[in-house]
Amino acid sequence: MMKLLRLCEMPPRWIIEPTDKEFALSSTAEIQCKADGFPKPRMAWKKAAGSRPEDYRALGHSDSSIQVRDDGTLVINSIQKRDEGYYLCEADNQIGPTLSAVIYVNVQAPPHFEIKLRNQTARLGDPAVLVCEARGEQPITIKWSRNGAALSAREPSPRYTIRQQKTDGGASSDLSLQETSRRDSATYTCVASNPFGQDNTTINLIVQEKPEVPFAIKVLNKSGRSVELSWSAPYNGNSDIFQYIIQYKKAKGRCRPVHWANAGGVRVVGSRAIDPW
C-alpha cells in the first residue's frame, strides 16, 4: 500500500541575516540575505527614501546598477554616496509574518584632491607655505615629499615644519619653509591616504630672485659712432628677463646709460662714440 508524505508548511527563518555594512566608494557591494521555509520564501530588498529607516521603496528594477540575485544577495555596482542609507530585506512565503531586517550601508570615500597640479612662487629669502587639502573619510594621513624624497613631520628641521589638521570634509596639511633658498625650487608631492584608498597632488614651488650678471661680453664690431656687442644670458632667477641696461664710460668719466635693450639678441646703436671699458 502506498504511503503519502505530507509536507509541513513552515514560515521563513534566517539562514543569513544581513547586518550593517561599509563599502569603499566605487567598489562592488554585495550584501547577503538568505532565508528558508516552505514554500520557499520570496526575497525582496527595499531602500529608505530619506535619511530615516522608513518609507521604503523596492530595488532591483529601475536602477541598472542594482541587482537582486535569486538567493537574495543585493549587488550594487560601483557604489556611490547616493547609495548610502537604510535598507530593508524581506522574506515572505505567505505562511506566518514576513521576516525582515533593516541595515545601514555606509559608503566610505578614499581621499581626493580637487586640484592635481599647481604652481606657487616665492621670493628668495621669504617664508613660503604650501597647503594641500584632501576630502574623504577619516582617518586621513598626509605625507610630503620633495623631488621624490620623503619629508618627515616627526623629525625636527630648522628649515621646515609640517602641520596637519582635520577639516569638515577631510584633512589639510601645511608645509612651511622658514626662509626660502634657491634649492627650495622643487616639485613637492602631497599624498593623502585612508583605509579606503589614496590620492596625490603636486605643487611646483618656484623661488624667484634677481638675475645674475651677464657674462662673456664681447665687442663684435666697432666703427665710427656705433658698436655691436654680444653677451651670454645669465641665470634668470626663475623669472623672465625683460630687458638689459647697457652703459658706457669714457676713459676718464662716469658710466652713462645708452639704451634699454629687450631681452634676447639686439643691436644697439649709441648716440655718440663709445669707448670700450
UniProtKB/TrEMBL annotation:
<dbReference type="InterPro" id="IPR003961">
    <property type="entry name" value="FN3_dom"/>
</dbReference>
<feature type="domain" description="Fibronectin type-III">
    <location>
        <begin position="213"/>
        <end position="277"/>
    </location>
</feature>
<dbReference type="GO" id="GO:0098632">
    <property type="term" value="F:cell-cell adhesion mediator activity"/>
</dbReference>
<keyword id="KW-0393">Immunoglobulin domain</keyword>
<dbReference type="InterPro" id="IPR007110">
    <property type="entry name" value="Ig-like_dom"/>
</dbReference>
<dbReference type="GO" id="GO:0005886">
    <property type="term" value="C:plasma membrane"/>
</dbReference>
<dbReference type="GO" id="GO:0007417">
    <property type="term" value="P:central nervous system development"/>
</dbReference>
<keyword id="KW-0677">Repeat</keyword>
<dbReference type="InterPro" id="IPR013783">
    <property type="entry name" value="Ig-like_fold"/>
</dbReference>
<dbReference type="Pfam" id="PF13927">
    <property type="entry name" value="Ig_3"/>
</dbReference>
<dbReference type="InterPro" id="IPR036116">
    <property type="entry name" value="FN3_sf"/>
</dbReference>
<dbReference type="GO" id="GO:0030424">
    <property type="term" value="C:axon"/>
</dbReference>
<dbReference type="InterPro" id="IPR003598">
    <property type="entry name" value="Ig_sub2"/>
</dbReference>
<dbReference type="InterPro" id="IPR036179">
    <property type="entry name" value="Ig-like_dom_sf"/>
</dbReference>
<feature type="domain" description="Ig-like">
    <location>
        <begin position="111"/>
        <end position="204"/>
    </location>
</feature>
<dbReference type="InterPro" id="IPR013098">
    <property type="entry name" value="Ig_I-set"/>
</dbReference>
<dbReference type="GO" id="GO:0007411">
    <property type="term" value="P:axon guidance"/>
</dbReference>
<feature type="domain" description="Ig-like">
    <location>
        <begin position="12"/>
        <end position="100"/>
    </location>
</feature>
<dbReference type="InterPro" id="IPR003599">
    <property type="entry name" value="Ig_sub"/>
</dbReference>
<dbReference type="Pfam" id="PF07679">
    <property type="entry name" value="I-set"/>
</dbReference>
<dbReference type="GO" id="GO:0007156">
    <property type="term" value="P:homophilic cell adhesion via plasma membrane adhesion molecules"/>
</dbReference>
<dbReference type="GO" id="GO:0070593">
    <property type="term" value="P:dendrite self-avoidance"/>
</dbReference>
<protein>
    <submittedName>
        <fullName>Down syndrome cell adhesion molecule-like protein Dscam2</fullName>
    </submittedName>
</protein>
